[in-house]
Every structure is written in C-alpha cells, then in structure tokens.
Amino acid sequence: MVHISATMFLTLDGVMEAPHLWHPAYVSDESLAVLAGQLAGATAMLLGRRTYEEFAGYWPHQPDDVPLAGATNGIRKYVLSRTLGNPGWGDTTVLGEGVRAAVRTLAEREERVLVAGSARLVRELLERGLLGELQITLDPLVAGRGRRLFADGAAPVRLELTGSRRLPHGVAHLVYRPAGMAGGHP
C-alpha cells in the first residue's frame, strides 16, 4: 500500500491559509532541510487543485538554485480535481475520480506520496483513514483569521505524536500518526 504523508505550515491558532504572507519570517536552513528531506523521501506529490494552482504559478519560474525548486519541479505530481483541465506543469497527472479512487491509482504507481498544503484533501484523507503521517511546521504566530486546517465541523481524529524537533525562530516541527477516529469529542 502507498504511504501518504502530509506536510504543512500552521500558526498557533491553526491557520494555514496564505503561508507566503507569514511563514517566510520563520524560514531557516534547518527548516529548509526538513522540507528537502520530505521531498527527497517521496516518489510523488499529491495536491488539491487550489494548492496545485498556487504551486504551478510559482515553482516553474524559480531557478534550480532557489531552495527546494529543483526537487519540487522534478517530482511527479498528481492533482485531485474534477475541474482542472491541462495541468501544464512538468510531470503532472490529474486524478478526478475522488479520494479513494485516487489513492488506489497512487497505490499502483507510487510508494511514498507527499501531500503539501491542501487542507480539504488532508482532512478527507484523515477522515477516511488513508493518511499515514501528518507533519506540521508550527510557527509561533497567532494569525487571528484565515482558513484553518481543522475548522468547526471537522471529524474528530486521534493523532499520536511520533516526533518533534525545535527549529530556529521558535518554530516546532511535529510529526503525528493517525491513531483512529475519536468517539465523540476529545
């Protein structure tokens, strides 16, 4: 079975929307090395349509000497979307059949898949028991507003902390493994 790991930047209040506005202040050589390791360990990347469009508007225009550009541009990409036509960015395949069918397709083609951002996709993978690992880079910032990873109404899911690392600028890198659906509210 394919191993699916998700990675994202979050603020202390759970906001993940528009990290380009707040995350750069917390980037360090160590945090870049963590991301580079995640990319190097993956055989492909799975993205939701919105995240794909953001990435496709940025990464292909970056020279390879920009940190993570070569790896991001070079990895096989899959986009879960019913509306995206021709993706037009490198080695990209559109998967339009829904999450379960997409995971079956990935299981036939890939070993280790990295989901970047893509909050709705991550929540659905978690709720369906299809996510193997959730990696969060937690920035010491309260955004106050913005789309959160787990909004009101999200299904309760238990997570087990399997790793943590303190990074410069007060950033914490947290690694969780799903431990099943929570019965009722935690």
Architecture overview:
Residues 3-171 form the Bacterial bifunctional deaminase-reductase C-terminal domain. This is Deaminase reductase. One of its GO terms (molecular function) is 5-amino-6-(5-phosphoribosylamino)uracil reductase activity. The protein is α/β, with parallel strands linked by helices and 186 residues long. The protein has a single domain (3-181), classed as Dihydrofolate Reductase, subunit A (3-Layer(aba) Sandwich). It contains six helices and eight strands; from the N terminus they run βααβααββαβαβββ. It has helices spanning 19-22, 29-40, 49-58, 69-74, 99-109, 119-127, and strands at 3-11, 44-48, 76-80, 92-95, 112-116, 133-139, 157-167, 171-181. An eight-stranded mixed sheet has the order 4-3-2-5-1-6-8-7, sandwiched between helices. Strand 7 and strand 8 form a beta hairpin. The longest helix is centred in the first third of the chain and has 12 residues, at 29-40. The protein starts with a strand and ends in a 5-residue tail after the last strand.
Q: What's the gist of this structure?
A:
This protein is an alpha/beta fold and 186 residues long. It has six helices and eight strands, in the order βααβααββαβαβββ. An eight-stranded mixed sheet has the order 4-3-2-5-1-6-8-7, with helices on both faces.
Task: For the structure shown, list the relevant keywords.
186 residues, alpha/beta, Dihydrofolate Reductase, subunit A, eight-stranded mixed beta sheet, 6 helices, 8 strands, DHFR-like_dom_sf
